[in-house]
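Sequence and structure are kept together here, with a separate record for every protein. An example record follows, reproduced without changes.
>
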Amino acid sequence: MNRRREPSAFRAAALAAALLSAAGAGCSRDRAEVAATPGADDSPLVILTTTHTPPYSYPDEKTGEIVGIEIDIARAAAAKLGRRLEIRKAKFPELLPLVSEGKADMAASGITITEGRRQAVDFSEPYATEGGMFLYRAEEPMPSMIRAETLRVGTIDASTYDFYLTSHDVDPIRYDSFENAKKDLEDGKLDAVFFDSCAVKIVAGESGGTLAASRLETRENFGFVVRKGNVALKAALDEVIVERQFK
């Protein structure tokens, strides 16, 4: 059960630290995929994702398989390296720590590139420029950051959106997935969810008019998190991202 936490200077400091350090451990295997050209290294290339960040990574409604832009890029990078790609699920606060600790090779789930995070991990070139906006019930007034302090706002724990809300004196209700926050919004337990603009627009568009997207509040670059020193993987990801941009 998610609940509000009292705002404090300690919480703001802890949240900033969460962007750089461990916030838990462990993840469950989702499935394995075989790269197009197997190489000498038979070990899997492991990517972590929260699996609920459309259109970047999300479960296919028919097959349940994790698909999306991030998975396509990771699969192509694995093929370049002649490695098998293995997709594993993890909560958002776990992504950077698990990669930094060497328990996964990379992570992607709409992760914003920041200089603070670069102290613990490396990033690929940006594959998308996104921003934060509010998802809200269409019959209610449009939320804005100016009004957010008076609203019940949900967001993803330890995300840059969490940090942004906190820096604007908003104490959000924190979730481990966008899907759970969206459900509470639909059930009337939240007034709004602050998250990636692309995901918010997709969900609003598929809601049949019950949900709506606010104006854009922030703008950020998304990149793949890569374990420090893994030069070959970063190079393969960068190559795939550049190739996709020029198609």
Observations:
- The first helix runs from residue 9 to 18.
- Confidence is low (pLDDT under 50) at residues 1-39.
- The two ends are 45 Å apart (CA to CA).
- Residues 110 and 222 are 6 Å apart (CA to CA).
